[in-house]
Amino acid sequence: MSLQSAAGNKAGQRQNDVKLRSRPWAATLILIGGLIALVLGIAVSVSFGAADIKLSVVWSAIFQFNPDITDHQIIRELRLPRVLGGAMIGASFAVAGAIMQGMTRNPLADSGLMGINSGAGFALALCFAFYPNLSFMYLILYAFAGAGAGAGIVYGIGAFAKGGLTPARLVLAGAAFSALLSALSEGIALYFRIGQDLAFWYAGGVAGTKWFQLKIMFPWVFGAILGAIVLSRSITMLSLGEDIAKGLGQRTGLVKLAGAVLVLILAGSSVSVVGAVGFIGLIIPHLTRHLVGVDYRWIIPCSAILGSLLVVLADLGSRMIIPQHETPLGAIIALIGVPFFLYLARKERREL
Fold it and tell me: Most exposed: 73, 174, 191, 266, by fewest CB within 10 Å?
């Protein structure tokens, strides 16, 4: 038997394993149940706040808006963009994490741990310092550039390390470089006296989300998630190994490039709105894989739904813990994410 035919047989066997280890019925339940839970979560989140508003008022504010009614103004101008922005951002971070974990076969991959979030945040700090009146559209573009630079440097540091690019080295490089960028951002904030402007991005939150931000962000996020779904089969093949993917006829270099662009769009646009919120892209793809199997045609859409649900519920929780003073969204998610990360890191160490 030739090497080529042996590789083809191995690739076919792995493809059959993917089918056997996938659970479409579970994915269908998550998509339907998750959407119902998300709609209910959005409704409750919109109704809850400093001024509690009945769900019937929320319904009328959405479908029979009256600008003369104060509750309708609160819902339409403050709470709806906040909650919808949270749902959009949760989907973005979750799908970005799923793409990264699938392409790199790194269970610890997450935009917050790979320098993407901190790179985008550093770019925003420079914008606030030197171009304080920059429009939100340009802020998103600078966040994309910062996210790309951060990810490129982290991968470069990890790749040039002795022994090659391993998951542990990549996380260490990402943590070290993220800490450096955070320190530089804080230095810029102190020197240029823009600490108050950056405080929101450090804490992470959706409280200040406006409709114009969502209108600019939505086409990017929707297009990137749609692109991830189109690319999902190729990501599944990459998750089995690059040799397997090539044996199945995948153009791995092109797939990785497309995936990297999608991750930068999703993470960069989200950081420009919500700030330094990490661990969503770490927690959700792992949970989704556990529930639906290893096929990214199911993992990506389910991750989008579960990521949205996580952020909507976390934002609701941030307003319930101390009603008079909101707890930062980033802190709420970190309470879940840090133990989860330590568990994964310990598990990964055992398997080395």
Answer: 191
